[in-house]
Structures are given as structure tokens and as C-alpha cells.
């Protein structure tokens, strides 16, 4: 960001004292008169000043604090915010808008990148779907919250990665705070004997439930492996090994089957990178696998319906229960949500019911034969439980198409970066970012978390990291901060 000519040190000191005194006075009066909302004003001023003088460090602070953010919900306004990260991200987005209005400049080299274009297509289609939404206000709020994730965490984060220190610290900042969440969670969980029943909520208030917690752990797992086994000092190796052990234990006791499976998927992609298998052969193989599964779906359904192993504290049984679609309530409820979403899509295939509306609209689309003991009509227990099927219900087939286009270009970019970047820190972290995205979008088959700051920081930040390195390889590194 451009630095402005500064006044004399005396004037600067005087203004600083006046500003500080005003903040203290405002905070004291708001507490004394019990107007607690006003107490947030000094915090807002601090964030504005921070963004004005050093936006990069504010973005990195947000990354560092995200695993410790807590969600505040207001049922009267159907509003949920993660504090303090979402207000900061919203403020940064507004700050960047003002900067654009002031100087009229945009980072065109970033915007013209295929990943950016794919993201913009999603944003514009989501905006169009507000016009046709069953609940326009809900959809508008969903769109705005999507913007304040993508603008700062993707578009504004790319120039941040011009700093080598920022590239090295991005995942580390997240991991340090996540480890604090893990210690808290494991401590609370230990009070209940690490039982599966309590594993769904012991991470609250940092994570709303165990699948979101497992998603974050799975995403950074490749980075933990990289940190633990890279060449480093003995002290560094010891500290990183302890971190790897802590978060590995946390991953096991999250009891999140989807996160375990996503780590296996990431290992498979790592083997492709290691063996230097061409990406087009990977996509061809993936197409053959899905086509084969579709053709043989009846046989697989017969096998799955014979599996009556339910999720439990026995880890072997817990893994086997993944394919139980006859008695496992969690699996059956996912199928109920998916089928409801598909019926919603069939009724409005082109534009869907509107962004963010699934949980308020799916109840009439449930069939009595598919209801489970955990089914609800109130929309208070999550959404479509799929990043992909949920898009069909809310934004129609174009919404899913634009997501698939994004996945194709971001993974193409990731593989290109990994193959062309010389050995070193950048390549190692690029592999971690790529594998982290693999875990998330594998997990996305069974859950969706892109409307949460915990996931958005990782997904959009990792995408920005890969795009930056791609531009760097193309010598388009004169990225302007906007």
C-alpha cells in the first residue's frame, strides 16, 4: 500500500494521544451506560488504522486468529458471525472497495488468471440467483458473506505472498492457533473418556461440531507431515514432531470419517506427484472410475445395504460404517438431505432456490420413508451436507458447473506449479496447499463449509498461494496491492 507523506513528529504524537484518549473515553462511556455494542467501535477504528498502515499484517493476523474465532448467532435477524474474523474480513473488503474508488486500479494480471475468472463466474452467477431466489434477503446475505471471504482471502492475499516470510508462515500461523483449539478440545474430551457421543460438540465454541473440526485438521495434515520430516535443526524437528503428534491425535479423536477418507485421498494424489503421472491421465482415470461406479451402482447398493456396522468408538467399526446405508443414522440423514436437494433441483433446475436458502426450503421435499431419528423440519441442523449437491439445489446446474470449472483450473494450476517450481520451501508448501485442497473438496462430497471462516481461510488462501506461484513462474510478479 502506498505510504503517505507524514506530518511533523509533534503533530503526529498529538493526534495519536487525542485518538487514544477518544477511544478510552468512548469505551468507558459505552460500558458505564451499558451500550455494549458501542464498545466495538474502538475495535473497528483499530482495524481501520491497521488496514490503512499495514494491510498485509492484518490479513496474516486474521489467518492466525481464525481457528480461535467464535460464532455469535442472532436468531431474530437470521445472522451468524464468527468473531472477530468475519467483521475484520468485511472491513477489509470495504477498505479495498474505497481504495478502488479512490485510485481506480485493479490487479488485472491477477484477475485475468483462469482461477480468478472461475471464481468471478461463481460470484456473478450467485448474484444473479439473488434475483430469482425464494428468499432474496437470505440470498443477498449469503452473497455478501461470500464476497468478504473471497476478496480479502484470495484477491488481497495474492500480493501478500510476494513476501517469502508470508509464504512460509501462512500455514504455520493457522496451525499454531489450531493446536490451541486441539489442546482445549482434547482436554474437554478427556473428561468424558474420549467417547464418540461427546466428540460431536467438545470442540465448541471454536468449532460448531466435529466435522468442521475434522475438515480443518485434514486440510493442514499434509503441512504437518512436511514440517515434521523436512530438513531442519534438531530443535525444529522436535517441535514440529510434537505438533504433528498433537494434531494427529486430535484427528483420530475427532471421529470424523470424512476427514480420515480425505487424508487417504490426499495421499493418493501425493503418489501421483511423486510418480510424476500426467494430470490428464489422472482425470481420465477419475472419469473411468466414476463411470464404472455409475454403471455398477445397483451392485454397490446391494453391498452397502448388507453392511449393518454402525459408527462407534471402535475405530475399525467406525471406518466400516462409512458404507452403511441401512442402519447408520448419520449416513441415512445425509442421503435424506441429498435426495431433498435433488428434488429441489428437479423443480428449479436452472436457477435453484437461491444461495443460502436450502436449510429453510428443504423440509417439504423430504419423504417419510427417508426420514431418520435425527431428521428435522426446522432447518436448524445443517444444510445439504455436500458442497456439490447443495449448489444444485440453491443455484441450479450452472452453479455446480462453475464450481467444477474452478476445481479443474485450480488443480491444473496446482499441478503445474508443483511440476515447474524448483525444489525448496515454495515447492514444498505448494504441495501442501494442493493436497489440502484435495482433502477439502474430497470432504466436500459429504459436507460443505465454505460459508465458514475456518474453511474459507484455508481454501481461498491456498488457492491464492498457488496462483501467486503460477504468476511468479510466468514472470508476472509485479503484482500491485489494491
Descriptive overview:
The chain is mainly alpha-helical. It has one domain (1-6, 42-482). 68% of the residues lie in helices and 2% in strands. Helix 16 (329-347) crosses helix 18. The longest helix has 32 residues, at 389-420. It is globular. It starts with 8 loop residues before the first helix and ends in a 9-residue tail after the last helix.
Oligomer designation: single chain
Q: What general outline do the C-alpha atoms trace?
A: globular
The ordered H/E elements are HHHEEHHHHHHHHHHHHHHHHH
Structural class: mainly alpha
Count, helices: 20
User: End-to-end distance, in Å?
Assistant: 7 Å
Instruction: Please report which band the strand proportion falls in: under 5%, 5-15%, 15-25%, 25-35%, 35-45% or over 45%.
Output: under 5%
User: Order of strands across the widest beta sheet?
Assistant: 1-2
| Total strand segments | 2
The radius of gyration over CA amounts to: 23 Å
Major beta-sheet overview: 2 strands, antiparallel
Mean pLDDT, to the nearest integer, reads 83
Number of domains: 1
Q: Helical residue percent?
A: 55-70%
Low-confidence residue ranges: 1-12
Amino acid at each position: 500500500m502506498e505510504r503517505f507523506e507524514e506530518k511533523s513528529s509533534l503533530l503526529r504524537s498529538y493526534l495519536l494521544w487525542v485518538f487514544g484518549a477518544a477511544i478510552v473515553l468512548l469505551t468507558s462511556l459505552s460500558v458505564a451506560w451499558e451500550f455494549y455494542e458501542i464498545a466495538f467501535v474502538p475495535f473497528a477504528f483499530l482495524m481501520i488504522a491497521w488496514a490503512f498502515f499495514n494491510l498485509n499484517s492484518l490479513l496474516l493476523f486474521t489467518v492466525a486468529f481464525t481457528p480461535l474465532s467464535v460464532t455469535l448467532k442472532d436468531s431474530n435477524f437470521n445472522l451468524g458471525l464468527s468473531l472477530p474474523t468475519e467483521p475484520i474480513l468485511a472491513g477489509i473488503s470495504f477498505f479495498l472497495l474505497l481504495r478502488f474508488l479512490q485510485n481506480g486500479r485493479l490487479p488485472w494480471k491477477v484477475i485475468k488468471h483462469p482461477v480468478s475468472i472461475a471464481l468471478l463466474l461463481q460470484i456473478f452467477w450467485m448474484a444473479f440467483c439473488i434475483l430469482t431466489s425464494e428468499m432474496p434477503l437470505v440470498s443477498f446475505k449469503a452473497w455478501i458473506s461470500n464476497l468478504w471471504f473471497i476478496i480479502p482471502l484470495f484477491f488481497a492475499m495474492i500480493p501478500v505472498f510476494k513476501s517469502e516470510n508470508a509464504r512460509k508462515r501462512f500455514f504455520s500461523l493457522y496451525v499454531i492457533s489450531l493446536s490451541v483449539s486441539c489442546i482445549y478440545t482434547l482436554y474437554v474430551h478427556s473428561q468424558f473418556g474420549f467417547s464418540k457421543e461427546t466428540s460431536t460438540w467438545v470442540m465448541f465454541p471454536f468449532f460448531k461440531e466435529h466435522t468442521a473440526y475434522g475438515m480443518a485438521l485434514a486440510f493442514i495434515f499434509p503441512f504437518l507431515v512436511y514440517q515434521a520430516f523436512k530438513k531442519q535443526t534438531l530443535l525444529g524437528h522436535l517441535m514440529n514432531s510434537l505438533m504433528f503428534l498433537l494434531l494427529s491425535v486430535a484427528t483420530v479423536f475427532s471421529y470424523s470419517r470424512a476427514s480420515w477418507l480425505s487424508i487417504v485421498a490426499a495421499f493418493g494424489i501425493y503418489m501421483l506427484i511423486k510418480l510424476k503421472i500426467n494430470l490428464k491421465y489422472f482425470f481420465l482415470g477419475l472419469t473411468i472410475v466414476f463411470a464404472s461406479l455409475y454403471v455398477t451402482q445397483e451392485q454397490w447398493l446391494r453391498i452397502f445395504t448388507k453392511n449393518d456396522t454402525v459408527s462407534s468408538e471402535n475405530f475399525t467399526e467406525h471406518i466400516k460404517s462409512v458404507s452403511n446405508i441401512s442402519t447408520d443414522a448419520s449416513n441415512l440423514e445425509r442421503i435424506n438431505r441429498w435426495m431433498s436437494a435433488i428434488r429441489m433441483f428437479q423443480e428449479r433446475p436452472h436457477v435453484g432456490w437461491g444461495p443460502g436458502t436450502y436449510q429453510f426450503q428443504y423440509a417439504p421435499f423430504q419423504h417419510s420413508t427417508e426420514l431418520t431419528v435425527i431428521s428435522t423440519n426446522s432447518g436448524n441442523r445443517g444444510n445439504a451436507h455436500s458442497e456439490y449437491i447443495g449448489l444444485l439445489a440453491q443455484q441450479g446446474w450452472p452453479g455446480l458447473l462453475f464450481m467444477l470449472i474452478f476445481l479443474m483450473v485450480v488443480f491444473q494450476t496446482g499441478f503445474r506449479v508443483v511440476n515447474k517450481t524448483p525444489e525448496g520451501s515454495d515447492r514444498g508448501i505448494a504441495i501442501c496447499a494442493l493436497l489440502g485442497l484435495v482433502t477439502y473438496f474430497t470432504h466436500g462430497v459429504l459436507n460443505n463449509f465454505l460459508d465458514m471462516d475456518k474453511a474459507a481461510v484455508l481454501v481461498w488462501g491456498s488457492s491464492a498461494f498457488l496462483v501467486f506461484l503460477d504468476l511468479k513462474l510466468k514472470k508476472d510478479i509485479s503484482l500491485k496491492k489494491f
